[in-house]
Design goal:
The protein is an alpha/beta fold. The protein contains 19 helices and 18 strands. The strands form four sheets. An eleven-stranded mixed beta sheet has the order 3-4-8-10-9-11-12-15-16-17-18, with helices on both faces. Strand 6, helix 4 and strand 7 (192-193) form a beta-alpha-beta unit. It is globular and about 85 Å long.
């Protein structure tokens, strides 16, 4: 009898500790508030007291019901003590000093200084009126003036977008991005709002003038993302004498919804590119006001990564952005293929998706659509993740504008990473048996030739994820997708600009680390000098590469040429059309890894274009 009683006691403590560990982990992953943590610890203590003092001699049923009750209380605490929203501070130091007053067209404002006083940061400056109510799905309007001095010390809310549960987000940071930190100070969420047309500025402290300007457009498939993200914080570039600007713009259904009635009511006949029009409005604001922050409005470089790079490409050919910037930087995306693989769609398709959304929401007229809560719209199951030829912001297929010389950039720095497509292909299993068929949707009749150029090979161990089914050809498949979705657009872009004798500098990022590695976006913290955000992911070799890449970047922003003293020479596409600059343990010119695939993709693109012409 005593042995049986002892075994039950051991079982209780095992279940208790396992349950406690589970709930503690969930509260940490879920970023629950401190009061929730305190209540959970109190509940765990109460359960021990109840179980050992009051229920020690009770029957199994009563103890089981008490156990279930404790779990239900813990679950209720988890739900009701979830993280609140809190504005993201412009700088990380506590009680930062304010800057002097700066005067812009709309009024006066102040920012804050970094802890060492070397950089001034101005966050949450409105560049357009809030696109809400009657301004939903309309061209952005200039911002309203304000009275008094506006304190620009926190980032504005990020644009409306689907939000993952904090637990899912934390798990992604653990297993995918490798940047999770155990902390009781991050128990809050960044605000989200339809009112998100604000920009942020980083500049060297003090009175400055004539500084080069970088305007950065964030990525996120045109459906997610925010300008407060640490990977492209502008502090490091500001320390190098650059004025950095980034901005929020309308995303998803708010930024790229299309409708014939919307085009009819527009004075410009436009629909489907509202997020791109936001970016153009921000560039206009920069041209008019950046001198007040020490920037030179005649020396503006436009930059973006992923979908942000697609936007940069679109802005390079938009008739509305002429004269608003001089050079371009595009990381891991572009629209120069004859039939772009992503981030672009025909207007007919955009209109069809718009009609499907109206049916889904039961809102056929614009008044009803504009009256819908933003939270309902953002939940649509239809993707609005593409730019389109609207005849106003984008006049024609981008490659045609390049062929006619109707583009604006005077120099281009661009490139791609080794494992660009891995995250996007995570749900696909590819073995040697289905490898060719899996490639057919990207290479058409050239799938066999593509598979021969990259024979079946498994994925490298570091790039295998728990939820990825893998396969004996998954590594080769991911590389072939990377070539089609990402590298090919840069190849086309370089060829089109080389015909105009415009200098193009193309990189190939190969550096491995404990963070993103050479996955999509893995190069960002190097170019923007932000490895310090997650130092445990990087070593001394990463610090050396960061300095090199940051120097290339700054040189290009200042002069249009990334080369400089002490740097390996970066050749242009005119000088070496088949070579790229490898950015890894070695920094050197090397052959583009996808030279065998580009002719196959050219042929497939020509066939797609012929099909569209016949239709």
């Amino acid at each position: 009898m005593k042995e049986k009683k002892r075994s039950k006691g051991v079982l209780f403590w095992i279940l208790f500790f396992l349950s406690a560990l589970l709930w503690l982990a969930l509260f940490e992953l879920g970023k629950n508030t401190l009061w929730g943590w305190a209540a959970l610890l109190g509940l765990l203590l109460l359960w021990v007291l109840v179980r050992t003092k009051l229920l020690s001699r009770s029957g199994f049923l009563l103890r089981f019901l008490a156990f279930v009750g404790a779990w239900l209380l813990a679950a209720a605490l988890f739900v009701f003590s979830g993280p609140p929203e809190r504005a993201v501070p412009a700088v990380s130091c506590k009680d930062p000093k304010p800057t002097g007053v700066v005067t812009v067209a709309e009024g006066q404002l102040t920012g804050v200084l970094t802890e060492d006083g070397a950089v001034e940061v101005y966050a949450g400056i409105p560049y357009a009126q809030p696109p809400v109510g009657e301004l939903r799905w309309k061209e952005p309007q200039p911002p309203e003036p304000w009275e008094g001095v506006r304190a620009c010390d926190t980032f504005a809310p990020m644009s409306m977008q689907p939000r993952k549960h904090p637990v899912i987000d934390s798990l992604m940071n653990i297993f995918g991005y490798h940047r999770f930190r155990i902390s009781l100070t991050d128990n809050w969420l960044e605000p989200m709002s339809e009112d998100s047309l604000y920009l942020n500025i980083w500049k060297p402290a003090g009175e400055r003038s004539g500084l080069p300007v970088l305007v950065y457009i964030h990525g996120g498939s045109l459906t997610t993302g925010q300008p407060s993200y640490s990977e492209y914080n502008g502090e490091a570039l500001a320390r190098e004498g650059v004025v950095v600007v980034n901005l929020g713009y309308r995303l998803g259904v708010f930024g790229f919804f299309a409708g014939e009635d919307l085009a009819a009511e527009s004075p410009n006949g436009t629909t489907g590119n509202y997020g791109l029009l936001d970016q153009i409005q921000a560039l206009k604001w920069v041209r008019e006001n950046i001198a007040a922050f020490g920037g030179d409005p005649a020396n503006v470089t436009l930059a973006g990564e992923s979908a942000g790079a697609s936007c940069v490409n679109a802005l390079c050919v938009s008739p509305l952005s002429e004269g608003l910037f001089t050079r371009a930087i595009a990381e891991s995306s572009g629209l120069t293929a004859k039939v772009p693989y992503h981030t672009f769609r025909p207007l007919e398709e955009a209109l069809k998706t718009g009609d499907a959304i109206r049916t889904e929401l039961g809102a056929s007229d614009l008044a009803t659509l504009r009256a819908l809560p933003a939270e309902k719209l953002v939940g649509t199951r239809y993707a609005n993740d593409s730019l389109t030829v609207d005849g106003w912001a984008i006049a024609e297929q981008p490659y045609r504008s390049y062929e006619k010389g109707k583009n604006h950039e005077t120099a281009l720095l661009q490139g791609f990473n080794v494992h660009e497509a891995d995250f996007f292909c995570m749900g696909v299993k590819v073995d040697a048996e289905n490898y060719v068929e899996a490639l057919r949707r990207l290479y058409g009749d050239g799938a066999e030739a593509a598979a021969a150029a990259f024979p079946p090979k498994e994925q490298e161990p570091f790039y295998r994820y728990l939820i990825d089914p893998g396969g004996t050809a998954k590594g080769s498949y991911d590389l072939c997708v990377s070539a089609a979705w990402f590298a090919y657009s840069h190849r086309c872009w370089a060829e089109l600009l080389s015909q105009q004798k415009v200098p193009v500098y193309t990189y190939y990022f190969t550096k491995e680390n404990k963070g993103l590695g050479s996955n999509h976006a893995g190069e960002l913290p190097y170019f923007y000098g932000n490895l310090h955000s997650f130092p445990s992911n990087y070593d001394s070799s990463d610090a050396v590469l960061e300095k090199t890449m940051l120097t290339y970047y700054v040189n290009f922003i200042k002069t249009g040429d990334p080369n400089g003293t002490g740097l390996p020479r970066w050749q242009t596409a005119l000088e070496a059309p088949d070579r790229v600059l490898e950015l890894g343990l070695a920094v050197r010119m090397r052959d583009d890894p996808y030279l065998d695939l580009y002719p196959i993709l050219d042929a497939y693109q020509d066939s797609l274009q012929e099909q569209k012409t016949r239709q």
